[in-house]
Amino acid sequence: MSVALITGASRGIGRSIATAMAQAGHHVIINFAGNETAADETLAAVKAAGGSGQTLRFDVGDDEAVSGAIKSILAEHGQIDVLVNNAGISIDGLLMRFKAADWDKVLATNLRGAFLTTKAVARPMLKARAGRIINIGSVVAQAGSAGQPAYCAAKAGLEGLTRSSAKELASRGITVNCVAPGFVDTDMTQALPEARREAILAEVPMGRMAAAEEIAATVVFLAGAGAGYVTGQVLGVNGGLYM
Predict the structure, then answer these.
(1) Among 32, 58, 151, 183, which one carries the catalytic annotation?
(2) What fold, for 3-182+214-234?
(3) Could you give the angle at which helices 113-128 and 149-169 cross, rounded to 10 degrees?
(4) By Cβ atoms counted within 10 A, which residue in 17, 29, 33, 37 is the most buried?
(5) Residues 108-123: pLDDT tens digits?
(6) Is 242 annotated as catalytic?
(7) Residue 234, SS3 per DSSP
(8) Minimal CA–CA distance to 66: which of 89, 90, 41, 83?
(9) Domains of the chain by residue range
(10) pTM, whole model, 2 decimals?
């Protein structure tokens, strides 16, 4: 059975990805940093959907923690076939007032984390001459977003990491792609004031937010046999918000 590591999978889009990947036949490793209860809820959802999985706590921004986690997965399963870099945080604020410490926090998880996990899984994937790495970006990397300098920069960097990694790893049968969601209907967006939600929807040609399951379905496609010749791409799932 294929083994898929999904970072930041305790809630939201990550939970939907874990469930969909499990339904597609992958054994999912549900990474989380702190909320064990939420991670257990994701695992319960995976099992309820008829899939198999397990939880694994580690900080994607910590080099030693990532190295140890990958070694433990390989020791137990002997392989890592798919990596989904989904872990991310957002700290918002205007550029002129943005704290350097907050900048470092966002980039440590959103960009450094993806670099560390990609680097760690590359070696076993190179030996296997196969693998799928899927980064979860954002439409704001392409379109920008006032008040999110660190988040936009991190997601833009993730697109660069995607293309660079894809060129390095393609000759060994490893694909690297990026899924860039637009606005997704999650707990975070549901908590927005109604006026703000309406303003967002007015900008989206399709007139609605994405369901988390639609992002997950795109990940499943990129992890599957049908995407074997797709690499180095940024696939927007944004309802036409950015074209």
Answers:
(1) 151
(2) Rossmann fold (3.40.50)
(3) 10
(4) 17
(5) 999 999 999 999 999 9
(6) no
(7) strand
(8) 83
(9) 3-182+214-234
(10) 0.96
